[in-house]
Design goal:
By secondary structure, this protein is α/β, with parallel strands linked by helices. The chain is 43% helix and 23% strand. Keywords: DNA-binding, Transcription, Transcription regulation. InterPro entries: HTH-type_LysR_regulators, LysR_HTH_N, LysR_subst-bd, WH-like_DNA-bd_sf, WH_DNA-bd_sf. One of its GO terms (cellular component) is cytosol.
């Protein structure tokens, strides 16, 4: 079905005149007449009766015009939606985050999407790295934004480094270690480690207990209510640090740790315009968070 020809029919029906319709469509009247005639010949119908008083749709013409109006409306809607999809302003994008990146980026990222792309449906999945990889391979999510170290060696993935964020040791302000200087790893021995992953325990005292949880808010509340040492991201706890509720510990025998952040997708897959727009903003937020601590 030729949508342009249907627009010709609708314009003639609206103006009741071939000459005015041609002017409105910015084509010549003979060209418009040929377009209408070709439709009538193809389908064996007469769309309009012509008289001195103007052009009037025939009985069957009125039925065709009603259907044409619906088809043109659908085509116009699809054209608009496709343009929005191409600009990343509509449709759906699903992104996976590790607990660390979710706590650091998602509130501001969600606000950005709602503010600048209200027609976009953003789905987020917060899981462990192995669960996110499985979701990616099953096409449940389009990409992963998270720590690179658990993902770099997985086959079939494209891993692009996009930045780094400092990982630090945080305790409550009244913690026995909070006011001490010259701390070493051995000083952590009497205190449990709170973390989103047991992989961060490497290099810490072997007898140190641990509380592993992938929920940022639970780790934060635990740290504020106990003597646990939280291995977390200071950038995500800036408000508590600024208020004096949380204190960063410096260890003389453990250099600062930078966690590399990567954009991970299936190899050979192109990102949608919406995914590109969202990840560009996530990169900006990540750089902003890193700058706050520099």
């Amino acid at each position: 079905m030729d949508i342009l020809r249907l627009r010709h029919i609708l314009t003639v029906a609206q103006t009741r005149s071939f000459s005015r319709a041609a002017e409105q469509l910015n084509i010549t009247q003979p060209a418009l007449s040929r377009s209408i005639a070709a439709f009538e010949v193809r389908y064996g119908v007469r769309l309009f009766d012509r008289s001195r008083s103007g052009v009037m749709p025939t009985a069957i013409g009125r039925q065709i015009i009603d259907q044409a109006r619906d088809l043109v409306g659908l085509a116009s809607g699809m054209d608009r939606d496709l343009r929005l999809l191409a600009r990343g302003e509509a449709g759906e994008v699903a992104i996976g985050f590790g607990p660390l990146m979710a706590s650091l980026l998602l509130p501001d990222l969600g606000a950005y999407v709602q503010r600048t792309r209200p027609g976009l449906l953003l789905r987020t999945m917060i899981r462990t790295p192995d669960q996110l990889v499985q979701a990616l391979m099953d096409d449940q999510i389009e990409l992963i934004f998270g720590n690179s170290w658990p993902l770099a060696d997985v086959q079939g993935l494209s891993v692009q480094m996009v930045g780094a964020i400092e990982v630090g040791l945080l305790v409550r302000s009244g913690h026995p270690l909070a006011a001490r200087t010259g701390l070493g790893r051995a000083d952590l021995g009497p205190f449990a480690i709170a973390s989103a992953s047991d992989l961060v325990l490497a290099g810490l005292p072997d007898m140190t207990g641990a509380f592993i949880c992938d929920n940022f808010h639970i780790l934060r509340d635990l740290t504020l209510r106990s003597d646990a040492v939280w291995v977390g991201v200071p950038a995500a706890a800036q408000a508590d640090i600024a208020a004096g509720a949380l204190v960063m510990l410096d260890l003389v025998d453990r250099p600062p740790i930078q966690s590399e952040i990567a954009l991970v997708r299936r190899a050979g897959r192109s990102l949608s315009p919406a995914a590109i727009a969202v990840t560009d903003e996530a990169r900006r937020l990540l750089a902003q968070a890193a700058d706050r601590l520099s």
